[in-house]
Amino acid sequence: MKPKNNIIANETKAILLMAALYLLLSVNILSAESLAPEHIEGARTINTATAKSLFDNKYPFIDVRGFDDYKTAHIPKAHHLSVKHNFTEQNLRKIVEKDQPVVIYCNGISCMGSSIATQQAVAWGWSNVFYYREGIKDWRQEGYSVQSID
């Protein structure tokens, strides 16, 4: 190979390497941005073990996923208020008063619904909100029971 061709080949390799690195970093940044936040100001983030304990103590759970997801499987006795359709202050108040505890969940850490609903509940004045970030995905993974609607 001639020296001029070697220079072009090396430059091409360097450009391709930089492009691959850029794409890799972009994918990692985008996936990190699509994860639900770990904490919501004014709420308590809980893990699956704590969610199960609250469930066993009969705390109300709010499933904020779409109705089709809720129909397929939800935490037993969870109320359904879709964050996209009917999660309103009035509907939440029909389930739980502002000073009473409530657990809000969706599909897990890649679902933004529970973080949005938790932020909204806190903004409306709910003072005892549990943000179950891990959601039904981890609930099922732990082997805990779920309900479905026919």
Characterise the protein shown here.
- This protein is of the alpha/beta class and 150 residues long.
- The protein folds into 2 domains: 1-34; 44-141, Oxidized Rhodanese, domain 1.
- It is 48% helix and 10% strand.
- The chain has 6 helices and 5 strands; from the N terminus they run αβαβαβαβαβα.
- The chain has helices at residues 3-33, 48-56, 67-72, 89-95, 113-124, 135-141, and strands at residues 44-45, 61-63, 79-80, 102-105, 129-132.
- Strands 1-5-4-2-3 form a 5-stranded parallel sheet, sandwiched between helices.
- β4, α5 and β5 (129-132) form a beta-alpha-beta unit.
- 28% of the residues are buried.
CATH topology of the largest domain, by name, is Oxidized Rhodanese, domain 1
* H and E order: HEHEHEHEHEH
- The unreliable regions are 16-32
In terms of structural class, how would the helical and strand content be classed? alpha/beta
Q: Nearest-angstrom radius of gyration? A: 22 Å
Q: Which strand order do you get reading across the main beta sheet?
A: 1-5-4-2-3
CATH architecture of the largest domain: 3-Layer(aba) Sandwich
Number of strands: 5
What do the pLDDT scores average to? 86
N→C terminal distance: 70 Å
Q: Please, what is the CATH homologous superfamily of the largest domain?
A: Rhodanese-like domain
Q: How much of the polypeptide forms β-strand, as a percent range?
A: 5-15%
Please count the helical segments: 6
When the domains are counted, the total is: 2
Largest sheet, in brief, is: 5 strands, parallel
Shape: globular
Indicate the CATH class of the largest domain: Alpha Beta
Estimate percent helicity. 40-55%
